[in-house]
Design goal:
The structure is a single chain. The chain is an alpha+beta fold and 363 residues long. 31% of the residues lie in helices and 28% in strands. The strands form three sheets. Strands 9, 10, 11, 12, 13, 14, 15, 16 and 17 form a nine-stranded antiparallel sheet that branches. A four-stranded parallel sheet has the order 3-2-1-4, with helices on both faces. A four-stranded antiparallel sheet has the order 5-8-6-7, with helices on both faces. A hairpin with a 5-residue loop joins strand 9 and strand 10. Helix 1 packs across helix 10. Bound molecules: adenosine monophosphate.
Length: 363
């Protein structure tokens, strides 16, 4: 089948490789001159919401999907009468606005941190009084990797913080003293079948994902996460892969946000599961049956941020993915995956990889 994908970053590249293995072909719309997905299909160089490029994509594709969360929903709605668009644009609309997203979690009885919409200093003062400090203040729209966020610890700083984040719609959230962070990754087919990948533990630094480990050895948390995932997928009449990020507090899970796309915290599934998140996303959007997301062992993933290590010196246990991007501080350039027979051995291998990357990219 011919799959049109809006966005041609590394997620597009990995979707393109998965599609190629399944005998499908991908065409990407992206404004970049040599985006990572150029290795995996044809590129239509244009803005994500360029009407002519999207019309051409719709005319030459059997289905259109997206790998990028900030695609304007109206641009997608402009082509839905020509071609199926999966995941459903309505899911993207909810995910693009943190307030809508939180209200959806509430409607589905998925627990979440206390929050309040902030439109003025008076709103923020009332959030300080009702939720308490510290508060995490986030822009309602267009935030990613911790961008558009600040922590308010002192009520004296409230006015300055509002000034710093600018005249945009904001949300204040309870600062959660979580034990650790996890993500649930699930997929739903056009027939409504749901699969959920083993729960993944994630470690962030400066708001950017650094390391993931799976499966999390806690069946109760895993089944709770799978239940929340199924509620979301079914409610949204979803087709494709969705990622739900959660905070673990004791035996409780609190939903942080969801992404209506394949996700960085699921990169380990390329080696760690026979049917990766990319494989199942392609199967889902092309109307095929999903494959079981059974883990092959214990996987770990390290993101390569800002600088690439030398590939020829990579420890034998690591599988390197190079997205082919120009290095820049804070930019995700690639990742390394390890898969081992035990969690202890996985942790040892990941530590070896972290040590190798730290030493070979220092200075
Ligand atoms: P987000 O952009 O919402 O995914 O936030 C990026 C990261 O900031 C999360 O992965 C957490 O590490 C941290 N974070 C976000 N919201 C909160 C919160 N309410 N309490 C504690 N940490 C948070």
């Amino acid at each position: 089948m011919r799959i049109g994908i809006i966005g041609a970053g590394q997620l597009g590249q990995m979707l393109g490789f998965a599609a190629r293995e399944l005998g499908d072909s991908c065409t990407f719309v992206d404004p970049g001159t040599s985006p990572p997905a150029a290795e995996a299909g044809e590129i239509l160089q244009a803005a994500f919401d360029d009407p002519a490029a999207l019309a051409r994509l719709a005319a030459t594709s059997d289905v259109v999907s997206y790998e990028f969360e900030n695609v304007p929903v109206d641009a997608l709605l402009g082509i839905t009468d020509q071609v199926p668009v999966y995941p459903p644009p309505e899911a993207l609309r909810q995910a693009q606005d943190r307030l809508a997203e939180k209200r959806l979690f509430e409607r589905l009885e998925i627990p979440l941190p206390a929050y309040q919409a902030i439109d003025s200093l008076a709103d923020l003062e009332s959030a300080i009084a009702t939720i308490g400090l510290p508060l995490v203040i986030k822009t309602r729209r267009l935030g990613y990797d911790g961008k558009g966020q600040a922590i308010l610890r002192d009520s004296e700083q409230a006015a300055a913080l509002l000034e710093q984040l600018g005249p945009v719609d904001l949300i204040a959230e309870q600062w959660v003293p979580f034990d650790f962070e996890v993500s649930a990754i699930g997929a739903r087919s056009t027939r409504g079948d749901v699969v959920v990948y083993p729960l993944t533990e994630n470690r962030h630094a400066d708001g950017i994902l650094r390391e993931s480990r799976a499966p999390v050895d806690n069946p109760e948390l895993a089944s709770l996460a799978a239940d929340y995932m199924s509620r979301l997928l079914n409610h949204l009449d979803y087709v494709g892969v969705l990622a739900l990020e959660l905070f673990v507090v004791g035996e409780q899970l609190l939903a942080n946000e969801f992404a209506p796309r394949v996700h960085n915290s699921g990169h380990w599934t390329i080696e760690g599961v026979a049917a990766s998140q990319f494989h199942n996303h392609i199967l889902a959007v092309t109307g095929r049956e999903l494959e079981p997301p059974t883990a092959r062992g214990h996987a770990g993933m390290l993101n390569l941020i800002g600088k690439m290590p030398p590939a020829d010196a990579l420890p034998a246990c690591g599988q390197l993915h190079n997205y082919g991007k120009a290095p820049r501080p804070g930019r995700k350039l690639g990742h390394i995956t390890v898969v081992a027979e035990s969690a202890t051995e996985r942790d040892r291998q990941l530590a070896e990889i972290v040590d190798f990357v730290t030493k070979s990219t220092a200075g």
